[in-house]
Design goal:
With about 150 residues, this protein is an all-alpha fold. The chain is built from 5 helices and no strands. The chain is flat and about 65 Å long.
Length: about 150
Amino acid sequence: MTAFTYPAFLRKNFFTLIALNVILSGILYVIYTLSCTNAKLQFLFPICSLLIILVSGISMAFKKNTQIGVRTQWSFYNKETWNKTQKTSAYITLLLGSVVFFATLTNDNMTVSAVLFIAGFLLDAVLCIASSYYYYQKAIKSEKVCE
């Protein structure tokens, strides 16, 4: 009988995943505590934005994998396309996450904050996928020039 071994992805990023788990657990605890005391949840969206900003900073370090990152058929084209897509997407998410953080922090209306949060991160998803396509097209063109 063979011993159980964790997948390579978990072995390489174990401490990063533990840190993300601790941060998320703390944020969920704060949200739960605020909701139990009938306090306003106006900080829900800024806190979630901060979590997304933290994850975007960490995501630049991930190697090519099938679990985490901008995983499109274009980003998997080659290693260079993957790395450029992840780095660009991390900067896009950091920028839009910061904008959403300050926009929702300065707004008292939960409905407007929810709309800003959703719209900001939908725009983020579209821009990240577009960057993946852009780097894929760039790689295709550079290969055709070299031939």
